[in-house]
Amino acid sequence: MTEQLALYGGKPVRDSLLPYGKQWISEDDIKAVSEILRGDFLTTGPAIEQFEREVADSAGTSYAVAFANGTAALHGAVFAAGIGEDDEVITTPMTFAASANCVLYQKGRPVFADIDPITGNIDPTTIEDLITPKTRAIIPVDYTGRPVALDRIRLLAEKYGLIIIEDAAHAFGASYNGIPVGSSADMTMFSFHPVKHITTGEGGIIVTNSDEYYEKLLMFRSHGITKNPSKCRGSEGPWYHEMQCLGYNYRMTDIQAGLGISQLKKSAAFLSRRRQLVNLYLEGFASLEGLVLPPKDFEGESSWHLFVIRLELERLKAGRREIFEALQAENIGVNVHYIPVYHHPYYRSQDFRPDCPQTERFYERIVTLPLYPAMRDEDVQDVIMAVNKVCNYFSKC
Ligand SMILES: *Cc1c(COP(=O)(O)O)cnc(C)c1O
């Protein structure tokens, strides 16, 4: 017997909506932020440097430069890489718009490669054909937290002299072949938006081993100004500072950094909880037909920012839209990550029409299920029950 779907007037699996992602703030975080508020510095104080040092240590890099948000951090990385007018940067369309927007900010042109249909990550075999004399960099994204095959991208980067800026907004704490994400690309960005692994409210960071990029990132986030006498061309007195490039005010506050330091203490626990929840999902869905689950085993360890399932539309009587709406009606906070970047009207208006058949096929089939460390086991069971209910209802067999 099939149960009536909530979409058609049946009783929903849950009484209240389960969001797809959410921060986890506890008393120790509140205490840490209060201490900053009672202290001397709300911005440009010591909490920033401490947060940067701790993130750099966790990623295994020499430097980290904190920004007001992850998008500003990507903008900084594109600036530091020297990307400018007419330069081309290859990236993936299966990402948040910011991964490509950061190139447009500096008047460069994003070029969209296609994706691997299993992982949703950029497909390295589609990159090489897109490289032209104007190509300067590659921005791969660790989609859902699964690290991209950076070793393969590195070979291309070396062959053509390209810079790699890894958008690891999803991949804080992930590793590839045992190497932590952050230590392999020229620059790597992490985001601290509330749905990401740890949060600072808004916030982002670039980690790098390069002295040159480090100096440029510092200037760029603070108006392009340096106060360091050894970097200044002139010297007119103790007040002297120089604006040497067109930067922005992209600084993180100490309030944010204080929250970040406190959240970092829990990042390993958050990560292992995400992995536990994923195991519950994989067990719960093992025998369900009509779904393709995210593959678990590969050369790395995902940080599981998102749990994205793919619908086997050939086995279902409904499309993604109807299934999505049915899950929503069951009070499951589903989502779609992502609308391909070049679908957005702004990109269309600029004549972005890449040939990405795998991206198109993938996009039609994906649904993101809730996943965040504060989720309870019972919440996962609710999602499994709702997905079972909906898929069985729409199953062709
Ligand atoms: C969240 C995110 C960003 C932007 O980070 P913000 O901190 O929200 O500015 C960039 N790229 C990807 C893939 C993201 O998920």
UniProtKB/TrEMBL annotation:
GO MF terms held by the record: pyridoxal phosphate binding; transaminase activity
Q: Which UniProt keywords apply?
A: Aminotransferase, Pyridoxal phosphate, Transferase
Q: What is annotated as the active site? A: K196
Q: Which domain of life is it from?
A: Bacteria
- A Pfam family the protein falls into: DegT_DnrJ_EryC1
N6-(pyridoxal phosphate)lysine PTM positions read K196
Q: Kindly give the InterPro entries that the UniProt entry links to this protein.
A: DegT/StrS_aminotransferase, PseC, PyrdxlP-dep_Trfase, PyrdxlP-dep_Trfase_major, PyrdxlP-dep_Trfase_small
Q: Write the protein's name.
A: UDP-4-keto-6-deoxy-N-acetylglucosamine 4-aminotransferase
Which organism is this entry from?
Desulfosporosinus acidiphilus (strain DSM 22704 / JCM 16185 / SJ4)
